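# step 3/5: fold
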Amino acid sequence: MKNIFLIVLFTFVTACSSHKNKSSIVSSKVFEAPFLWENANIYFLLTDRFYNADTSNDINYNRNLETGKLRGFEGGDIKGITKKIEEGYFNQLGINAIWFTPIVEQIHGAVDEGTGLSYGFHGYWTKDWTTLDPNYGTTEDLKVLVETAHKNGIRIILDGVINHTGPVTEKDQVWPTNWVRTEPQCNYQSYDSTITCTLVKNLPDIKTESEESVELPKHLVEKWKAEGRYEQELKELDAFFARTGYPRAPKYYIIKWLTDYVIELGIDGYRADTVKHTEESVWNVFKTECDYAFAQWKNNNPTKVLDNNPFYLVGEVYNYGISTGQNFNFGDRNVNYFENGFKSLINFDFKHNANDNYEAIFSKYSTILNGELKGLSTVNYVSSHDDGSPFDKERKRSKESATKLLLTPGASQVYYGDESARTLIIEGTVGDATLRSNMNWNDIKNNLETKDILEHWQKLGKFRANHPSVGAGVHKLISTQPYIFQRTYSNENYKDEVVVGLDLAVGSKEIKVGNVFAEGTTVLDAYSGKEGTVRNGLVKISTEFSIVLLENKNHKK
């Protein structure tokens, strides 16, 4: 949902003489609050585990063998995401972008990883990049999802895998040797031993270093012919390679296939998977082609364009942290991924930093993001699908998680169920399966404690979404005791300022507002809905909460 703020611009006309000033001229204009990826509140979900809106597609390709606990398909689908958008679930959370796990066709067979059989429910075991897996839905389903999201002011981020194919099974053959390597396995001790190797056993690694032209795999050609689309796929590939001049090397095929979803459907971004396991130059090419595809979609769909933001590419450089600035250290080599296609990286530091006090976190992140990373961004998170050591794994600090995550400078990633304390400890699971349980919709519906936690996440999320200053602004401490701070953001024709107080007394309280709100301004506490008036730099307000989120009452939502 777009928000409009009343911005009063003061234009000062100054005489040529530095000793004489003429009176200021005051004008006013209504400006739309900009959506900024640096302030994005991104919801990340496993497509198969979020919501099952279409039970008719729950089983495909005879994927019906018994698996280890939570290692098979559970039924979640694209229609389920769309349904929750339509119900307003994401808008109530202040979510303005949704990232979900890959939805391309997965391997048909199962693998035994020592945890019982596993199917590719998570989406990272690609069999065919050019089509969706029927367990998730159809291309038409995805088109409807994107259009529904855009109508609700929500951007869509797909998950792109270029590094590897799916494992080899009795139903899924290995790709040709000029496409993939099957050994050695990575030991992560150096740059080369992180890239020119397989992540794990039986996960064929795409030869992304190759510039050698290769033929399409025989099994893919046979598959497309059986599906009646071989000629069309070949025609599109010929056009792509003719336009770009790239050799027909493996990475360029995959980049073409992934960017098709941009040019055809208008998705707004990609989360790039396993970034540090390919040569960094791969991502510059990917970003170039995503930009081209996004521009083509906008040109073809002028009435559907949300804004002028460029295509969003955020990278998963595993173990990258904001504290290291722009570089990632492989041990024998530093790589700056911000110079290789990315303006944003996932921040693996935050789960550790979240144990610090508010001011330590907020001031540190503001300093870095307005210093060494100015113009760039990180995506902070407290839990995820493959991080076995999240902040608050036992879900005993859910409100604190929300307060720290959603008020920290940078973009925020809400992993599905963070907002509802979905348990991350499932008895009988092995490894990351415990992080990937089904969304706890029943708790949201019936459990009072869950509802209370969710309401806290909703209030903070909507406040962040309404105010670019929260994630993209400059942090400044106003008072230590009680703890009060301000955030300010401005560009050429827009300014946003807020004041936040945490760990305050319940009941009556006085909030110092510094120089953010002028004398006599009526302010609204977005957390309680109460109002107050600025007198002598203070706002007196009485609420039943220990948190206040102050905004100028005159801003319009």
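# step 4/5: annotate
The domain at 37-214+249-470 is CATH 3.20.20.80 (TIM Barrel).
# step 5/5: archive (pending)
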